[in-house]
Amino acid sequence: ELKQTFALAAQAVRDVPPEQLQDVGKQGQVAAMQAVSDPGKLVAIVHELNPQERQQFERMVVENKLVDEKQAAVVHQVMEPDGFADKIATAVEYFEMLRPY
Questions:
Q1: Separation CA 76–CA 69 (nearest Å)
Q2: Is residue 54 pLDDT above 70, yes or no?
Q3: Residues whose CB is less than 8 angstroms from the CB of residue 48 and which lie 6 or more positions away in sequence, other chains included
Q4: Of 59, 78, 91, 99, which is least surrounded by CB within 10 A?
């Protein structure tokens, strides 16, 4: 679902003037800041991304200083495939399956 959203967004902005894309980029940074500040959202987002998208998201978070430089290694551990985000998401999925019992 998230990948499909990204694909539709990329297709939609193909003809948008650069000035307007900058505004969209700023809004994207705000959304990323909110995701980084909410571990639940971050886990949900990262779990849906492929390795290349994870690298792009990680780079954007670090380059835009949404996390302290000292936390960059932690961000990497969270976002890498089979990293913390995937482990937490898997655990949540199991808990959700067990919840009815």
A1: 11
A2: yes
A3: 1, 2, 3
A4: 99
Pair 20, 41: CB distance under 8 Å: no
Question: Residue 57 corresponds to which tokens in the numbers above?
Answer: 């998201």
Q: How many CB atoms lie within 10 A of CB 25?
A: 12
| CA dihedral of 85, 92, 31, 24, whole degrees rounded to 10 | 80
Is residue 24 over pLDDT 80?
no
pTM given for the model: 0.55
CA–CA distance, 78 with 55 (Å, rounded to integer):
11
Mean pLDDT of the chain: 75
| Residue 95 token pair | 């808990």
Tell me the C-alpha distance between 48 and 41, whole Å: 11
CA dihedral 92, 28, 52, 39 (to 10 degrees): -20
pLDDT higher than 80, residue 55: yes
